[in-house]
Specification:
The complex is a heterodimer of chains A (288) and B (317). Chain A contains ten helices and seven strands. Chain A has a five-stranded parallel beta sheet, sandwiched between helices. Chain A has 288 residues and is an alpha/beta fold. Chain B contains 13 helices and 14 strands. In chain B, β10, α9 and β11 form a beta-alpha-beta unit. Classes of the chains: A alpha/beta (288), B alpha/beta (317).
């Protein structure tokens, strides 16, 4: 099956709940990992991988595929979930996450699982990789689009801004970068640790198009991704305001859940919340 | 001995131009040093396949990595200090862990960079590049060897680092000397001591061997142009023949070519070894020959160490 496909908002939201379930289950099973920033990126990834990214999980070398480069690579629970749920590998493998011999490394390798375009984990580096992929494709006259997912933590790295400067210099309008802006990092609030505000002004002054959205509002994510495809001459940053730990009440807006695994009790509570969300959503009529 | 003096970086530039003609996938990136690394010559011929990335080396290297993911073959160039040092973790995590097909040209290697001083004299690249899995490291001796090494780099999938210098260096190979990445060879046969050298030190080693011959000492000179993968067989064969070794490089002794040779010898065939190289210090400004003299990167130093190591061998026997 090739993507993109069209789904109802309700379908996307149901997929988002399943993805959140994968995330907490994976991190719980591994006993380590990064739930907070995985949960904040869910709607961005669900929308991109289903409705915008041109890709074929059965043909990972497809010449015409779009390229997705993760800049925030610690969110492997989210990355592996979306890859698995769009068909790159069986969901049963998700629980091998971080185990010896598993394809699902703590931070991803570009060789496994299927669907990874690039390794990552050292912040700041993959904004440059995304820029290089976009520049390489453009140089060869190819039409593929390049997407990136970054975070404000990734944007504290100086190299990210070298990349942002060069992507604008080369007029890479085939590049769209989503910023999962959840305002928390390991040591606390971003603005207390090392402020990045105002991100929109920073991108604008580096000659990027900037779109600002609520990163959990599927409709806004869709609109922004659609708009980005039409913007010319410059790359586009979609600054998505998000909530770290989104969807699990006791994880929301708590930096402590950046890199901590839920215990058995936490998991039970989290899954119960997600069940409740699912039941509520299922009782609604499908949206057009 | 009179030898033609030529620039190794011209070998880099000439090979890049030839590769550009042969293969449209070859692209070149530089960080505002194109006139110095001579990649400007590639730019003149292939302006659409040359990318000046400005003074932002870390970004340059990962952009090259990204380009390689689209099927291009990027050659990246700037001074060795910046490419190998400033961007080391980019090379480690993105390029080497990811096995990306990016080729690195580290210009201005060694203390012979001269008046620019310590900040610009790369003396550590062999150490910090050879420790990286999937990386290959080449230190060619002269113009012709640089040219052939660059041509060979393109054929080798994955990251390769080549070091070249600023100054003209004596020509010790010819257009027709065979070159294979990872295959060292004796430039001169001998039986009393093996001098294993790379880069400009191959010429110094040949001068040293010539002098030693006049004193009745038969020195073998090995051109160890590839530090990784290291040609163990050639090292062991020579050590078994001569029973002692001098290593010579324009680089820190710690972790460099000499260290690599000693790792092989210590594990397989321990013989006395002496090293010629930079001894845990930074350089300074000066003209290249003054600096080579002051820091002991000369044939004279090779001769002294050869005589010393032969005595150690004799005492051992």
């Amino acid at each position: 099956m090739t993507y993109p496909i069209k789904l109802t908002d309700k379908d996307l939201l149901l997929k988002a709940i399943r993805m959140r379930r994968d995330i907490v289950e994976m991190v719980h099973a591994a006993g380590s990992g990064h739930p907070g920033g995985s949960l904040s990126s869910v709607e961005l990834l669900i929308t991109l991988y289903n409705e915008f990214l041109k890709h074929d999980p059965q043909n990972t070398k497809w010449e015409d595929r779009d390229r997705m480069i993760f800049c925030k690579c610690h969110i492997t629970p989210a990355i592996y979930s979306i890859l698995s749920r769009t068909g790159y590998f069986p969901p049963e493998d998700l629980l091998t996450f971080r185990k010896l011999g598993s394809d699902l490394q703590g931070h991803p390798s570009r060789f496994h699982p299927h669907g990874m375009e690039m390794s990552g984990g050292s912040l700041g580096q993959n904004m440059s990789i995304a820029t290089g992929v976009a520049l390489g494709l453009k140089t060869q006259g190819k039409q593929n689009r390049v997407y990136g997912l970054t975070s404000e933590g990734d944007l504290q790295e100086g190299q990210s801004w070298e990349a942002i400067m060069s992507a604008a210099h080369f007029r890479l309008d085939n590049l769209t970068v989503m910023v999962d802006y959840n305002k928390l990092q390991i040591d606390g609030h971003v603005e207390d640790v090392m402020g990045v505000h105002p991100l929109d002004e920073k991108f604008k002054s580096f000659n990027w198009h900037v779109l600002i959205i609520d990163g959990h509002a599927i409709t806004q994510v869709k609109e922004a991704l659609a708009k980005a495809q039409t913007l010319k001459e410059r790359p586009t940053a979609i600054i998505a305001h998000t909530i770290k730990g989104k969807g699990i009440s006791f994880m929301e807006n708590d930096a402590g859940w950046h890199g901590k695994a839920p215990n058995d009790e936490d998991l039970k509570k989290a899954l119960a919340e997600l069940d409740e969300q699912e039941a509520k959503l299922s009782s609604l009529n499908p949206t057009p | 001995m009179e030898r033609e003096m030529m620039l190794t970086r011209q070998g880099w530039a000439d090979a890049l131009k030839e590769l550009g003609r042969q293969d449209p996938r070859v692209v070149v990136l530089d960080a505002d040093l194109a006139k110095s690394t001579l990649t400007c010559q590639f730019k003149d011929e292939f302006p659409d396949r040359f990318f000046d990335m400005g003074i932002a080396e870390q970004n340059m290297i990962n952009v090259a990595g990204g380009m390689s993911l689209t099927g291009l073959i990027p050659f990246v160039s700037t001074y060795g200090v910046f490419v190998s040092g400033r961007a080391w973790e980019q090379i480690r995590t993105s390029i080497c862990y990811g096995q990306l097909n990016v080729k690195f040209g580290g210009a201005h290697g060694g203390i012979s960079v001269g008046p620019d001083g310590a900040t610009h004299q790369a003396l550590e690249e062999i150490t910090i590049m050879r420790v990286l899995p999937n990386m290959k490291v080449i230190v060619p001796a002269d113009y012709y060897e640089t040219y052939k090494a660059v041509m060979a780099m393109k054929e080798m999938e994955g990251p390769v680092y080549i070091r070249f210098g600023r100054e003209k260096v004596p020509t010790v190979t010819t257009k027709d000397t065979p070159f294979e990445i990872g295959k060292a060879y004796s430039v001169r046969e001998g039986t009393d001591v093996s001098i294993i050298a790379c880069g400009v030190m191959v010429a110094e080693a040949l001068d040293a061997a010539e002098f030693l011959q006049s004193k009745g000492v038969s020195a073998e000179v090995i051109n160890m142009h590839t530090i990784k993968p290291l040609d163990q067989e050639t090292i062991l064969k020579s050590a078994q023949k001569t029973g002692c070794v001098v290593t010579a490089e324009e680089h820190q002794k710690a972790g460099g070519m000499g260290s690599a040779v000693m790792e092989v010898l210590a594990q397989n065939y321990p013989v006395p070894v002496e090293m010629v190289g930079i001894d845990d210090t930074f350089g300074e400004s000066g003209n290249p020959s003054e600096l080579m003299e002051k820091y002991g990167i000369t044939s004279k130093e090779i001769i002294e160490q050869a005589l010393k190591v032969i005595i150690r061998k004799q005492n051992k026997n």
